[in-house]
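Demo today. Your pick:
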Amino acid sequence: MPPELTRTAGYMIEHFDVKEFFLEYRDRDTGKGFGIKVIPAAEVEPTRIIGAYGTEEFNIAHAFELQRGHKMVLIKASPEKPARVITYLYPML
């Protein structure tokens, strides 16, 4: 895999002085976008790969709020029916 496709968050912070990143949340089964969450660079794991190659999959067992466009939306989830989520990390340049 070419190195330009596997840039890490730490590389982006050092070389491009990125202050914030956003996590894009998607439904694992349908691919539908739940929304995004903006996070400061200090909270990002420096070894996490940016973009599609750095996805993380997990289940969320509680309701959570995300930004979708200009509004906040509530994603319904519970221990009985968890939300199956994939996240992608992107820098805000």
In short: The beta strands are 20-27, 33-40, 56-60, 64-68, 71-75, 83-91.
